[in-house]
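anyone else get weird line breaks when pasting these?? whatever heres mine. first is seq + tokens for prot A
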Amino acid sequence: MKSELEKCSDTEWLLKLYYLVDISEHLNQLNVKMQGIGHTVLSLQQAVFAFEKKLEVFIKDIETGRLLHFERLLNFREACPE
């Protein structure tokens, strides 16, 4: 198992970490939308369905490498020397 310091210099591991940070942010936004008083089951269902559609967009974004919806990952990738 790699030490914490070794992970900080492992580009592949850091790319995965930045991906996780970005996708967690998207999940957090969904979570916030679903909180609070006054939401109907229909509005909550629509939020989940909309997120499912976003996931499809996210998959295409990752597959193409454009990373339009993964700001932190894109910034790291651009700053990372290859």
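and prot B, same format (seq, then tokens)
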Amino acid sequence: MKNQIQLIGNMGTNPEITNFDSGAKKVRFTLATNEFFTTKEGKKEQRTSWHNLYAWGSTANYIAKMGKKGTQVAITGKLVTQKYLSKEGATKAFTAIEVQRAIAL
């Protein structure tokens, strides 16, 4: 089995770039994907899903240069669940997508 996801959607935010002292670069952004379907009543509907994404290194550099809010992009990556402590001290978790490849369309 392989943890792999492919999405095509529009960037919902401009890339947020973080440069680390080590020289590493990380970019974060959101991606909106749309699903179109017909209800039982025959009405056409659209459902938008929002995804949190991030990338490292040369992929981050590419996204930072080509991407801005609204850009249509195809990505390949993997699902990553991250845990953190809330201000109240509770353990919380969220799932994001670590982008391994991206192409502006």
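btw re prot B: The beta strands are 5-11, 16-19, 25-38, 44-56, 72-85, 91-104. The first strand starts at residue 5 and ends at 11.
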